[in-house]
Design a protein that fits this description.
Strand order of the largest sheet: 2-3-4-1-5
Number of domains: 3
Family: Belongs to the DNA polymerase HolA subunit family.
Structural class: alpha/beta
Keywords: DNA replication, DNA-directed DNA polymerase, Nucleotidyltransferase, Transferase
Largest sheet: 5 strands, parallel
GO cellular component, one term: DNA polymerase III complex
Protein name: DNA-directed DNA polymerase
Number of strands: 5
Number of helices: 14
EC number: 2.7.7.7
Order of helices and strands: EHEHEHEHEHHHHHHHHHH
Shape: elongated
Radius of gyration: 25 Å
């Protein structure tokens, strides 16, 4: 019997794999390294392993020679073969054949709309590790680590080694991602909260040095583009998300600031960032100072 486990949710996919394997002997293969003869041997030939063994093959779709001819191979129904894949092209002949002949399961990553379910899942995971997290703490972890359950699970494992879990400890272990800091930086500048602007600039400079300034400018330009699109679209998040292929959650967070920005303000924002970017590339002035000066002028 062939099983196909595919999708980008690695945590759920690995859990399904463990459940399928059970206590059986497991023989693992990297699909990219197999030859067609190897695959024929696995599918129906006699092997050194017991007939009750489970054969787990990862990334076979990356091996075009085998993947394109998989439907042509004979398979022993008494053998358990599990194909483990990430994203698959569902238009291919092989995928359509597997849909008809194999037991397939797709594991999709969680989205922003499923954050409440993910918070509840984290609460359960923490209890299973014999400690408790507040929903606020879990929300912070999700905002900083993302919706990847495997990544969250690994971090929850780390927290199980800590004697006391505090908000301060979480801030130390999971500092804000650069994109989160830059979002706060951009919003603080629009709100004329210059103390926060200075504090975030100082933090980013100490964490990433001169090179980080150029990455930060790129992220600020991205925030300004999203802001301009929101203002010109009259705050229509869905339209902007579709047109720019931007995460709706990012736009939703910018929406309140966008309501205070008009066309003339957009011009000032773009001009200030353009001049700062130009000076960063053509002068020897500290790039962080140029960024802070530009933001204060917004």
């Amino acid at each position: 019997m062939i099983h196909l486990l595919h999708g980008d949710n690695e945590f759920e996919k690995q859990a399904a794999l463990v459940a399928l394997v059970g206590d059986a002997d497991v023989v693992r293969y990297d699909g990219e390294e197999l030859t067609l003869a190897d695959m024929q041997e696995i599918a129906i030939g006699q092997t050194l392993f017991s007939q009750s063994a489970v054969y787990v093959i990862s990334k076979l779709s990356e091996n075009f020679d085998i993947w394109s001819r998989l439907s042509e191979l004979p398979f022993d129904d008494d053998k358990t073969i599990i194909l483990v894949e990430s994203k698959l092209d569902k238009r291919t002949k092989t995928y359509k054949w597997l849909q008809k002949t194999a037991k397939t399961q797709e594991f999709l990553p969680l989205s922003d709309r499923q954050k409440p379910q993910l918070i509840s899942w984290c609460e359960v995971q923490a209890r299973e590790r014999s400690y408790k997290l507040t929903r606020t703490q879990i929300g912070t972890l999700i905002d900083r680590l993302g919706f990847d359950q495997l990544r969250l699970s690994n971090f929850l494992d780390q927290l199980s080694l800590v004697e006391e879990i505090t908000d301060e400890l979480i801030d130390q272990l999971v500092p804000l991602a650069r994109s989160e800091n830059v979002f706060d930086l951009f919003v603080a500048a629009l709100s004329k909260d210059y103390e926060t602007v200075h504090n975030i600039i100082s933090y980013l400079e100490s964490e990433s040095g001169v090179d980080g300034a150029y990455q930060t400018m790129g992220l600020l330009a991205s925030q300004a583009t999203n802001m301009a699109a929101l203002v010109l679209a009259g705050g229509d998040n869905k339209t902007v998300a579709a047109d720019l292929s931007v995460n709706p959650y990012v736009l939703q967070r910018l929406s309140s600031s966008a309501r205070t920005v008009d066309i003339e303000h957009l011009r000032r924002i773009n001009d200030a960032l353009f001049q700062a970017d130009l000076q960063m590339k053509t002068t020897g002035v500290n790039p962080w100072l140029l960024i802070e000066t530009a933001l204060v002028s917004l």
